[in-house]
Amino acid sequence: MNTKTITPLLAAAACLLATGCRQNMHNQHKVKPLGESTFFAGGQGARPIPAHTVARGDLREGAAFTGLGADNKPVAQIPPEIKLTRELLVRGQERYNIYCSPCHGRLGDANGMIVQRGYKRPTSYHLERLRTAPIGYFFNVMTEGYGVMPTYAPQIPVADRWAIAAYIRVLQYSQNAKLAELSPADQQQVQEQLANPAAAGEPHTPSAGGSQGVQRPASIPRENNGRTESPGDHKP
Ligand code: HEC
Q: Closest Cα to residue 144, out of 74, 194, 96, 83?
């Protein structure tokens, strides 16, 4: 071997040795999360967080996070951070139907299924007081809760709470729109439907009495020749 081949080999060996030494650094003493410590008085490894510490990106201040303005009153407009688009309203509709409609009803008339089963009935969104309430009020109620209604802040992110608040405005408008505000084509359609409600295709309402079963078309004969069914008659 000449010096030309030996030098790279020596260099490689030196690298290996150097990385070997670094193990000590890897295995040095440390305190595991919430572990014990003999260093700090009190024996607690974790240090208390200094007062008023805010984690990066966690500052939740201002109307966008509270729905309240500088005067501590609900804001009348969606904050500029939130863009009012069709997508926002569609998202709001979806989130509203998931999180709010069980009590407030899909129409916002406070007739949700949980209310029908005995939960406290909220105020309908279509009463004057809530129709004229500023949009920040709805955001703030979702964020902080209201009376027996719990906060939804842990379940619904900020942007979605604004989407829901915006959609509540849609619901309110849907039940209180003036005919003259619609386009001429829509006005005509409404007039036609009012004149002939049967043709308008009323939305399907499940029949009272709890019969949820699918109607059997008359053309399919019953296996039991029309005898009254008893539970044992159900065969796969
Ligand atoms: C579990 C049932 C329930 C759900 C779900 C629910 N609420 Fe409520 N909400 C209530 C009740 C009950 C009240 C009235 C509370 C009271 O008076 O103690 C109320 C009150 C309100 C009010 C205040 C109305 C007023 O009279 O000023 C607003 C606004 C509101 N809810 C919005 C929402 C929104 C938005 C959602 C969905 C994120 C939602 N709620 C989900 C039951 C519910």
A: 74
Residue 187 pLDDT: 93
In the 8-state DSSP scheme, what is residue 214? P
**Which residues lie across from 44 on neighbouring strands?**
36
Is the pTM higher than 0.90? no
99-177 to CATH, choices 1.10.10, 1.10.760, 1.20.1740, 3.40.50: 1.10.760
- The alpha carbon of 115 and the centre of ligand 1 are apart by a number of angstroms equal to 11
Residue 64, SS3? helix
Predicted local confidence at residue 171, as pLDDT: 97
148 touches ligand 1 (CB under 6 Å): yes
Ligand 1 pocket test target in 93, 103, 128 with most atoms within 8 Å of CB = 103
pLDDT tens by residue, 200-228:
665 554 444 444 444 545 554 445 444 44
Report the candidate in 59, 79, 60 with the shortest Cα–Cα distance to residue 69.
79
